[in-house]
Design goal:
The structure is a homodimer.
Chain A lengths: L33 H10 E7 L4 E3 L7 E7 L2 E6 L5 E7 L4 E2 L12 E4 L3 E7 L3 H7 L1 H27 L2 H18 L3 E2 L2 E3 L4 H8 L3 H13 L3 E4 L2 E4 L2 H8 L13
Antiparallel strand pairs in A: 1-8, 2-7, 3-6, 3-8, 4-5, 4-7, 9-10, 10-12, 11-12
Helix pairs in contact in A: 2-3, 4-6, 4-7, 5-6
The first copy, chain A, binds a DNA duplex through helix 6.
Chain lengths: 255, 255
Amino acid sequence: MKREDNPLKSPPRCAHPCDDCGLRNNSAFLKSTAEELDAIESFRVGSRSVPAGRSLIEEHIRSPQLFTLYSGWAFRYKTLTDGRRQILNFLLPGDFIGLQDEFAEGNTHGVEAATDVTFCVFERDKLWTLFQRQPKLGYDITWLAAREEKMLDDHLVTAGRRNASERIAMLLMHLYRRAERIGMVEDGWVEFPFNQQHIADALGLSLVHTNKTLRRLQRLGLHKIDDGKLRILEPQALETLGDYFERPLRRVPLI
Amino acid sequence: MKREDNPLKSPPRCAHPCDDCGLRNNSAFLKSTAEELDAIESFRVGSRSVPAGRSLIEEHIRSPQLFTLYSGWAFRYKTLTDGRRQILNFLLPGDFIGLQDEFAEGNTHGVEAATDVTFCVFERDKLWTLFQRQPKLGYDITWLAAREEKMLDDHLVTAGRRNASERIAMLLMHLYRRAERIGMVEDGWVEFPFNQQHIADALGLSLVHTNKTLRRLQRLGLHKIDDGKLRILEPQALETLGDYFERPLRRVPLI
DNA sequence: CGAATGCTTGACGGTACTCAAAGATTGTGG
DNA sequence: CCACAATCTTTGAGTACCGTCAAGCATTCG
């Protein structure tokens, strides 16, 4: 008998085997075969939790492990030596974490929990074995990497070529759509555990200017952020302003 | 008897089989086994050339093919609907191109040749077959994707958190180091087929401001750009200014 | 030699940054 | 339960970095 808990709503636990994984019932993800689940199971070495504000991966230290986020919000970031921080992207349940430093010596990203998070842990050294045993899962991982690169492309366009209000419009729609896709929206509200410094660091803006721009869009009635939750009031207006239209989202593989 | 031409120096031609590939003699790349070469060979459907300034991949059109750049410089970019362009990254021989739109409907990047380029063409539909037949090559492709994502991370930090001179310092060092790695530096000079508009679009700056900043760094004696070639005069100064230190570069797989 | 492309420079303006300080909210300990 | 600290948000003032506009110059090419 499966427990089928939903990590998005109930307190997460992931001690159970992958074929009983609450996230896998989510319609945003592709189904895996029994053999694939088996391979994932032996790739996985356990699960961990980290409270909001703490690190999953310390910057500049190559983690010997890979993760799949199971519940909560996190983000990847890098900092310059004088402390300026850039958030690279935001992580939601199902996101596969850590592939980027497959080869880097130092100079790696950090990953921080924005809410309390739970995640599955995989041994990096077993990655190659996984590719051998189940090429399909290797293909899936590549697919996930390509998808994340695509998101980075969009963020780079944002940071490079959009002005402040366009940036904010783009980010809000992006995050909302992604959360919506995996069923994290309830009554039009999404959990939004980011403060204005996070938004500023993601968009390459200063805190003050972020505040003023955010406030202006909210006064215009385009969105609302309240009590750690986000609501989109005028999706079309925000999409047009940000010149950002989320393409139809396919089902995504889950490792 | 192998021809062993060097695509970096002599006029490129790639009608010959992969085990006779000029690029594979380059010490920047990992050696492949005979079986791998065989698999790559059957994955490949031919080679093509495109003159400077023309497209390898049209923006917004999902290419049914994947490429490996064989000779020359190219770049990936995206444009907003009002024409603002952002260059996402630069492509050198050995770079694998097109994985990013593995799933995107429209909304894809464009790829343009900066010099005359030659590249190998692969059938996207055969990618999965390749993973099955040679998981190692699948692993390599993932590796390449992760590496490119890492470069995007760095560019995002640049666009988001560095000022104009820091951006330029970072970009010049980045491009120089990458070109150097595959032996494209001769007497301290690298082919540099980019105009100031390219640099501006890569860094998220205006043309005018790019010009003034570039000029200032050149007057300071940090670098020289002349006749389509770049020379780094003060690598340390540029690295410090850009807060960007290229990590030791490993050998890279070549598909 | 005129057109096209790219580089350079100056003038001016605005978007976004910095500095500063005052609310608002939350958490903590006495 | 209140006081105080800590964190985050908000607002104002002044500034600067960078963008836009405009025009001149250099080089290439047909």
